């Protein structure tokens, strides 16, 4: 127990910020899209250990990251067994910015979805088994898609440039303070859910508008 009025976690107290939800969502989406590579963490299907592996972002829908997977890989079994224990995090080692997204994993294997997110680069990782079916192409039945339905997220946004952050850190060490080199933003369940609901409404409005325009032209 602290005997002072100072916060026991001064780093978090100095770094926390809460801009409008729309800005938090927009900045987070831009960050993960630009970073592209993240560490996907799952709970092992046969024990209580966690496993992480680097994954390339294949796309995103609303705020949900889209990833590729081999439907016969251990991570697919992990996500099928423990879909709710899923996290993916992204890091920019230059600025120190990072993001952590937690939620529920969905394994999608229908051909329209696989073909939508398919990339020719996948063939290098799946290989061609020479049977005319498992060839690494968009019709390869081994290829699946992971959609992480985000429930909560944390995003640390870099403040200032590299030199400014270095100076801030040195000054903080000398003064016994903590550096405020990132702004830590939390996106709770209600904010994330509201964002997805709004995206759905905007999409429906867009469809309605297009239908109305087509009717007018007809």
TrEMBL record:
Pfam families in the record: Pyrid_ox_like (PF16242)
SUPFAM superfamilies: FMN-binding split barrel
Signal peptide: none
Name listed for the protein in its UniProt record: Blue light-inducible protein Bli-3
Alphabetical list of InterPro entries matching this protein: Split_barrel_FMN-bd, Stress-Dev_Protein, YdaG_split_barrel_FMN-bd
Region (Disordered): 1-20
Lineage per the UniProt record: Eukaryota, Fungi, Dikarya, Ascomycota, Pezizomycotina
Segments forming domain General stress protein FMN-binding split barrel: 24-177
Gene3D superfamilies: Electron Transport, Fmn-binding Protein, Chain A
């Amino acid at each position: 127990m602290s005997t002072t009025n100072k916060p026991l976690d001064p780093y978090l107290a100095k770094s926390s910020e809460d801009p409008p939800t729309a800005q938090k969502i927009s900045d987070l989406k831009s960050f993960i899209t630009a970073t592209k590579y993240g560490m996907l963490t799952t709970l092992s299907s046969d024990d209580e250990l966690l496993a992480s592996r680097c994954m390339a972002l294949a796309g995103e829908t609303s705020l949900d990251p889209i990833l590729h997977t081999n439907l016969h890989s251990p991570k697919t079994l992990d996500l099928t067994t423990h879909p709710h224990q899923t996290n993916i995090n992204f890091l920019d080692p230059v600025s120190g910015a990072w993001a952590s997204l937690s939620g529920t994993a969905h394994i999608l294997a229908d051909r329209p979805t696989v073909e939508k997110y398919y990339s020719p680069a996948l063939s290098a990782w799946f290989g061609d088994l020479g049977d005319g079916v498992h060839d690494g192409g968009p019709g390869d039945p081994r290829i699946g898609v992971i959609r992480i339905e985000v429930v909560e997220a944390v995003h640390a946004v870099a403040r200032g440039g590299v030199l400014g952050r270095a100076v801030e850190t040195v000054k903080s060490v000398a003064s016994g303070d903590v550096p405020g080199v990132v702004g830590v933003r939390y996106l709770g369940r209600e904010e994330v859910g509201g964002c997805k609901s709004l995206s759905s409404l905007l999409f429906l409005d867009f469809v309605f508008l297009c239908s109305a325009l087509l009717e007018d032209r007809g």
